[in-house]
Each structure stands twice: as C-alpha cells, then as structure tokens.
Design a protein that fits this description.
By secondary structure, the protein is α/β, with parallel strands linked by helices. Helix 1 packs parallel to helix 4 and helix 15 runs parallel beside helix 17 (374-385).
Length: 903
Amino acid sequence: MVEAVVTLAVEKLGGLLIEEFGYAVRRTHVRSEVEWIQRELIRIKCFLKDADVKQKGDDRVKNWVRDIRDVSYQVEDAIDNFIMIKSTSLSRRAGIIKRYVCCFSFLLNELALQHKLGRDIRGIKVKISDISASRITYGIENIGSGGGEGSSYVFEKLRERRRSSPRMDDHDVIGFDEDMNMLVARSLDQEMHRCVISIVGMGGLGKTTLAKKVYNSTSVKRHFDFCAWVYVSQDYRGRELLNEIAGKILRIEKGKLSMMSREHLEERVSKVLNKKRYLIVLDDIWETEVWDDLKTLFPDVMNGSRVLFTTRNRDVAIHADPRSSTHDLHILNQTQSRELFLKKAFPMEDNSLTCPPELETLATQIVARCGGLPLAIVIIGGLLSRKKKTPNVWLRVLQSIRWQLNNDPAQLMEILALSYNDLPFYLKPCFLYFGLFPEDLEIPVGKLILLWMAEGFVQQRGEESIEDVAEDFLEELVDRSMIQVAEKRYNGKIKTCRIHDLLRDLAMSEAKECKFLEILDSTNTDTSVTTRAARRISVHSSLEEYLKLRHPKPHFRSMLSFSRVQESLWRDQWKLLFMSLKLLRVLDLERAQIQVLPKEIRELVHLRYLGLKGTGLQRLPSSINYFSNLQTLDIRGSKVSRFSVQLWEMPGLRHLYLEKTSIVGHPPVHVSAMHLRTLSRISIYGNDWILGLLEKLTNLRKLGIHGYFASQTEALSRCLVKLSNLQNLELKGTEPILEPTMKLLLNQPSIDKLHLSGPLEKLPHPQEIQPNLTKIILEESRLVQDIFVTLEKLPNLKILKLLANSFLGKEMTCSVSGFPKLHGLELSFLDNLEEWRVDDGAMPSLQNLIINGCDQLKKVPAGFQYLRALRELFLFNMPGEFEAWINGDDSYKIQHIPSIVMR
C-alpha cells in the first residue's frame, strides 16, 4: 500500500507544485530540494516490494515502511496546504482590488507562505535522507519497480473481455450438490407451516453461495409465488432492513418508504404476503433480535411458505424455529477441494481439471493448507492463476501459507492477507477503499469509479479514458475473487458489486494500520478517530456525532456519509464542518439535508468529487467556479433549479448530474469544461445555449436534456451530428419530436442507448435506424402504429422498455425472427393494449419480461409458449381475468418459465 502513497506524493511534486506554482518554487529557492525529494522517492519506490514482503516478519522493516508512508503524507500535506492558502488568498485579493483596497498585507502573507513552504521542504529532505541511509541496514534490496508478479496482469485481455461477451457467474460451486438437493427438498416438502430453514457454518464455508443456488433453482422459483433476497449483515439496522424488505415486496420507492410509519409498513408487507406462498432469504444473520424484529412480517397462513437463513450462530437458527433442524455446512473433502482449486488456478484451461505433473505435489500441499474452506481455496487459486506455472513460484506461495487452518477464522485471515499482499500497488488502495462502505452494501460501480478517480488512484493509460482504466481495475479485483459481482447491466458490465464480510474485515484492518481510513460509528471514541491521522473518514453514525469530536481534522482528504437517518444540521454546524476539512478531495453528503452551502465551502479548492444527491439543496454558491479541480458534481434529487454560467469555466469537470436544472446567462466564447463526459438532466426551458456551446462538448458520452424541443430542434440536430462520442442520449419534453428529428436521433452511429419521453410523430423505417442501438426506452410517445414492426428489425437491440402511453394502439405482433438479440422487455401501463401475438421464432433470446398495469390485456399472449429462453416473468397490477387465464386454460403457455412473479 505504501507504494501507492509514494506514487501519489511523486505525482504531486512533479505535477502540482513545479508546474502550477513553479514561480513560487523558484522564488523560495527550493526548486532543487523539491527535485531531490522527487528523485529520492522514485528510488525508494524500487525497494518497496522487497520491504513489503519483509515487514511481516521484521519490525525494523515495518517501521521503515511506516516512515516512508508518513514522510510521503508530509509531502502531500505541504503541497496541499500551500496550494489551498495560495488559491484562497488570490481569490480574496481579486475581490479587494476591485474595491480599491490596498493589497500590501497579501504580499506579506505570500512571502510568509513561501518561507514556510521552504522550511517544510527542507525538513522533509532531512527525513528522507535518514530513511534512505537506513535501507542498507535493514537489508532491503532493489527487486525492481515493476510491481512484481502481481502487476503482470495483461490489460489487453481485460479490454478484449470488455468488448466481447458478458462475464459468466464467477462462482465455481463444488461439493454442494447433496446440500442443495436436501435444502430444495425441505423447501418444497409437504409441511404447510411457515418454516425457517437455517444454513449454519463459519465464515468462508460458502453459506451464501449455497443459498443462492437454492434460491435460483428452477423448481424453487416455480413453487413459490414470491421470492426475495435480503442481506442482513452484522451491522443490523432495523428500519433500513424493513425498508429494503418492503421495497422488494411492495415495489415502492425508497423515498416514499421512509415517510411511512413502521407500523403501517409492517402491516402492508404482512398483508401482501398473507396472500402468497413466499420464500424470503435473510442472508448473514448474527443476532436473535433480528428475527424478533422481523418475524411479524412473515405470516404463517399454512400454505407452505419458507424463510431461509444463513448464519454463523447456531443459537440464532434454533431461536427462530426450534422445530426445524439446522443444515450444518461442512468443509470440502480432499477431492472437492482439489477440483475447486484447479478450476480457479487454471481458469483458461479446458474442463479436464488436470494439473501439470511438476506442480502435482505442490498443488496437493497447497490445497491441504486451505483446510477445505471454499473461500480460502478460491482466493489462493485466484492468486496462483496470475502467477507463472513453475515449481519455484508455487513453492514460494506454499511457504507463505505456514498455517493449517483447522477452522480457525484468524488463520483464514492470514490466507486472505496473502492475496492482498500479492496485489499490484495500483490495486491496493482500490481494494482498501471498500472498507469505507457499510457491511453488505451493494455498491454502485458508476459512483465507485468516480470516487477512485477523485482520490487519484487511477491514471491515464495510453488512449484509454480514466473511467475505462478504473473499470479494468474493478474487473481485475473481481477476477482475483477479492470482490463479488452483485448485479450486471444489459451489456455485461458490472452495475453493482459487494465485498465478502471477511475480506471487508481484512480491508479495514490493513487500511487502519496504514492510516488509510477510519470509520465513525457507535463503537468509536473521540480518541480512536482523531489520533491516528487517517486520510479518509466514513461516517456511519451521523455528521452530528462527527462534529462532537471537537478536534480539527485537517489531515482528512475524503469524507463519505452513510448516516442512518436523514439528518439536518444548523448553518453554523455546516460552516464548522467545512472549515475543518479544507484539504478534502472527496465530499459525499448524500441524503444529508442542507438547503444552502455556506460560503466557506469555496476554500475546498482541492475538491474533485462533490456528492449532494438527495440533499434538498436549493441553490449552489456563486463561487462554484473556484473548484477548478472538480471532476464530479452530483445534485440529483436536489431543488437546485438554476446554475450559473460559470459552470462552463471549470476545466476539470467530467461528470455533471443535475435535476432538470437550467444554466443561466450567456455561455462564454471559450469553454473550459472540454473534458465533460456526462451532462445529465439539464433543462433547456427558456435557454438558448445549445447552439454554439453543446457542439463544443465533443467528449460527451452521456447527455440528458429536459425541455421544449420544438424551438430548438434545428440547433439540437446540428449539435448532435458533431457529438461523435455520444453513447447515451435522453430527451424528455412535452412537445412532439417530428419525424425528421427522429430520423436523426435514430441514425447517430455512436449512440447505443436512447431514452425518449414525450410525443413522437412516428417512427422511421427500420432501414433508417442505425444498427448499433442496444437499449431503447419510450414513454408518453403516444404512437398508434405497431412499435414492434419497426423495432423488431434492429439486429443488436437487447433491452426495450415501452412505458406509460408509449403505445396507444390495441394490437402488437412479434413476427418470426423479430428481436433476434432482445434479452429484456418491459410493457408498462399501455392502457389500450388488448391483444399481443408472438410468432414461433420471435424473440429467441428473451430472458426477462415485465408486464405491468396493462388493464385491457385480458389473456396470455398467443404464442407465449414459443419464448423458450424466457427465465423470469413478472406480472404486476394485471386485471383479474388475466390472472384467471394464467391459472386456467393458458397455463400451458407459461409452464416452461422457471420464475413467475405476480403482484
């Protein structure tokens, strides 16, 4: 990890200090000292791989590594403080000069600032000299700065994978066949009482993996009317868990759920489940109180419903249902362990699961050291899959595993740590970052990537964008089995991810040791958070608790808030918060209630990520353009209706997420925000900035516009032609989009995702639509022509959503060979739809279908039985006649579908 810290320090020295403020360096006569420090840190980096290996068994080396980390932090602090004070003083001076006030005091302050910088640099130089001299004493050798075998990862393969087929489920499940059959049988048996079935075992045995196999089995999906999966975790939050359960059962937005009383919510959930034979999975329960809080949600109406637990605590299982025997999960036997190991260690080989003869003995010994624990085997197998297949390399790994596990979780952590230590330096901070998130949280990958970028973990690589490089980093962590995929997008990319709780414990342990992060929750004290000088803090309790610490925390570079409540601070509290965090790069206050940002926020000149989603913010400060380093601004779910034209003067801005916000004022002639890639939900009501400005934003990948398009159709059309990198376009308005404009929108070759909300005159001929479209969403289109006639001809369309009033006709037909690659289809609130026919051979790849609120559709569509690839069918708010046909004469049309959910 220290290698990443040194790398960031070197980049600061070279990029920020010398280039941006080079004149100040020359005037303070410290240029040579700065260059010396930069060169010496680069030299020290070459020895860090060797030191990282030796520090585990040598306290002297461990202290040497710690000293390097601390002096690198000092370099970062000196530069960041210098730039922060310099930037804020310049902005203040500008205002004073305009008011004809003498600036003599500013000149004195500048001289003092330069003197302090020189003093700090000279002190750092002395420390680095001592560190360099002690290296030989500790026997630390130069084994190269290439990052060792861990950095031998082949980026070309990652890029190729990203371009080709979606990733398959990476859980190689071995040895669970008998367990799965037993659990499926118990789920489907003749016992009519609502039973609690518990999978019990230590961490790393594969309880969650087994539960998922049961949950996703075809027979289980067909047997139960309703299935839901809920993560509980050790950090139990009663109301949040209730909201999650209710959201999945009632399909109500989170914001509305939080406004409902607990009693009302529990009553509604129980009432819905009263009419269903349900299966609810509660994954990772630690305490009996969890079941005591939730059991009233799951009524026993003698219809064979089931609740499936995974837990490490047998007492929890017995407490929940004393009549039901626990299912104890055991370690894998030797044969199963070997099979799983070979699958992970040789992932690119054929299915023969053979091991080279020269590695046979070593493989047996390594597997034995894992003690039959699936998680340990997967981690070690993943580690070896990226190393050379030679006896010497494998022997070194074997020698690193000095422990026979014998079901000891502490010893399991040693094996997990081995995989962490093998990570290349650029992945270590990315992995440790997962420790900031609450346990068992499904983490949005889009947000995670933007946070990594703001932290400086990701650098440009050739012609690739920083976002693509960050995506590769996540893919590599997944390939190494360090991170799990929770959900994927329609194009195979990862949408959300999560981390196993044991690996999260490892991340937090390693992160705290190297001052990478701190967590503020109910278990932390004032001293534990403030004395370790961590660089990042994640608030899991409340921001008010953080303010009670009453100590300045200038060392923090990041603050992420995961407060359990929607808290609202007083203006003076917000002012105090920002004044104590002047060196922040990342500030995420999602869901915290703040109407106006205090003026002190303008001093956060290093800010690269500002997350104000769902805060209720009413306006942004006029000093927003002071954030010249800002990369991401997210004000979705706020009340900000107007944005200053100074927006276009922010050169670092890459991602701007708005909430139907207007840009006020005439755009500048020269636009600084040329790197903008996301401009989403911007309003053009009463604005005329499209022509002459939008066409300059040639790096845009995602564009969302809200407003009247009729008056700006020509300008919009001219600009879209020039946005050759645009991939995702969303247009929402109330005026019709005429056919010529539609032809233009549907013929932009770079666009693969299109969301149109508002009246459409008509769809163009299929031959006038470019073939690269993979996702289309239409709502309020008010089309009378059969939409399928046009869209079914698109060769690469994978997702189609026809939402409220997109189609006003009565009949739709999917013809033979139509929609050849369509995976997902949603039809919602098509009020006039009476008949839908599916020809044999249509939609051969359809896997997921949602039909919602189509009141006039009284029968199962003719030809439904031909949808042989369909895996999931969701039927919501459908008329009683439709449900009667489903359970009666039309049942043969859907009997092949594994999972059918009706609500």
